[in-house]
Specification:
Elements lengths: L2 E4 L13 H9 L3 E5 L10 H6 L3 E3 L4 H6 L2 E3 L16 E4 L7 H9 L3 E4 L14 H20 L7 E3 L2 E3 L3 E5 L3 H12 L3 E5 L5 H7 L3 E3 L9 E2 L2 E2 L4 H12 L7 E4 L14 H4 L7 E4 L16 E4 L2 E5 L8 H19 L19 E4 L2 E2 L17
Parallel strand pairs: 1-2, 1-4, 2-3, 4-5, 5-6, 9-10, 9-14, 10-11, 14-15, 15-17
Antiparallel strand pairs: 6-18, 7-8, 12-13, 16-17, 18-19
The protein binds nicotinamide-adenine-dinucleotide.
């Protein structure tokens, strides 16, 4: 029987990669689930709820437990301080593989297989496994709530005995999963919303949510690959910045979500452009960990710049841990339902279009060295 380990996450991570519900579904796949004590507490899942679902509780970071694990399910990346897994074990998680030479080295040295969930293809078969979507949805929702709580005015239009209050004006930059959820949340709160994106397909989605689409500059629009925007040229970004600057005069809130996978986030609000916002306006930058759409944002910090609050919000899904974990765990379980046969055997087929892009390593043979540009193949690695 293959052993699954759901560890207690580290570094302030509140989420967990398996819930009592998914422990039940994994047990139906003939997997034996072990859960580190306290792993689900921050997400509202007690140790007892895992035991009732059929899991075994183990002490955190027990070397012998990790050595016997066949399948490690994680939210955050691997690190060298964790106990060692045995050769051939599979790690499934958000492994932050871009530019992560340490990860490749660790996978190679310990001869591990690894699926990096950020790299799942956006194909219909993978929709139920899409952690980027389930977590970005939460980030977009929470970003608007954070900004609304910090804003010096109402979001909706109100007609009161003391007079009429105009609705807040919101600019959302980037209309991917997080951006569209931010639009929907701001609209539900009664705001008037404008949206900037570079993908033509975004227009219809934005308009269907009752927001206005801001046309990107005509010249040099970046192309698309697999539904993602490609990186824009410096000339295009400069033109886009000028266009956005013209929109900012009456804006109360900016939610920044523009990203390009594996590349720095496009810089769209320079310091000078941010200064066009009125004092009291709020910027929430969800792209801050990738360099940010706003020049002033800093990871995990709230900065008051000439009266404009700039919130560098990099870990918003972890601030809604119950639903973030529940959905993440279901994404992971949906993937395992494909990888595990009814008799409880695991098959990793690198030819499967679902696995090809996200199977970073197969038993220590690295398959995605392209993610780390200067990575040189170590000894014993098949090119
Ligand atoms: P993302 O996080 O990589 O980027 C967020 C948004 O930023 C994207 O809409 C992108 O076009 C936009 N962006 C990039 N550069 C920009 C710039 N200079 N100015 C303004 N906006 C810019 O994207 P995501 O949220 O992961 O979604 C990417 C795409 O994948 C979307 O089209 C989404 O609808 C699609 N998607 C498909 C599936 C599926 O089919 N299974 C699932 C989820 C998302």
């Amino acid at each position: 029987m293959l052993k699954v380990l759901i560890p207690l996450e580290e570094g302030g991570e509140t989420r967990v990669a398996g819930s009592p519900d998914t422990v039940k579904s994994l047990s139906k796949l003939q997997l034996l689930c072990t859960v580190e004590k306290g792993a689900g507490i921050a997400s509202g899942f007690s140790d007892e709820s895992y035991v009732s679902a059929g899991a075994q509780l183990v002490s955190p970071k027990e070397n012998s437990v990790w050595a016997e694990t066949n399948l490690l399910l994680t939210v955050g990346p691997l690190n060298n301080a964790q106990p060692k897994l045995s050769a051939g074990a599979l790690v499934v998680g958000q492994l932050a593989p871009h530019g992560n030479a340490n990860l490749l080295q660790l996978l190679q040295q310990q001869q591990l297989s690894a699926i990096s969930l950020e790299l799942l293809p956006r194909i219909s078969r993978a929709q139920s496994m899409d952690v980027l979507s389930s977590q970005a949805n939460i980030a977009g929702y929470k970003a608007v709530l954070l900004a609304a709580a910090a804003l010096d005015r109402y979001m909706p239009m109100l007609m009161t005995a003391a007079g009429t209050v105009q609705p807040a004006k919101v600019l959302v930059i980037g209309a991917g999963v997080a951006g569209l959820q931010a639009v929907a949340t701001a609209r539900r709160l009664g705001a008037v919303v404008k949206v900037s994106d570079v993908r033509a397909a975004a227009r219809e989605q934005v308009e269907s949510l009752g927001a206005r689409f801001i046309e990107p500059p005509v010249q040099g629009v970046p192309g698309e690959q697999g539904g993602y925007a490609k990186e824009a040229t410096a000339t295009f970004l400069e033109a886009q910045r000028q266009g956005l600057a013209e929109q900012l005069g009456d804006i109360d809130m900016v939610i920044c979500t523009a990203q390009v996978p594996g590349r720095p986030a496009p810089l769209l609000l320079t310091k000078e452009i941010t200064e066009l916002l009125r004092p009291g306006a709020v910027v929430v930058d969800l792209a801050v960990a990738q360099g940010g759409n706003c020049e002033l944002s800093q990871v995990g910090e709230t900065i008051n710049h000439k009266g404009v609050l700039v919130i560098g919000a990099d870990r918003l899904p972890a601030s809604v841990p119950h639903h973030a974990s529940s959905l993440y765990a279901r994404n992971v379980a949906a993937l395992l339902e494909v990888l595990i046969s009814k008799s409880g055997e695991m098959k990793l087929d690198p030819e499967d279009p679902l696995l090809d892009p996200c199977l970073v390593s197969l038993e220590g043979v690295l398959r995605r060295t392209d993610l780390v540009p200067n990575w040189s193949l170590g000894e014993g690695v098949k090119p």
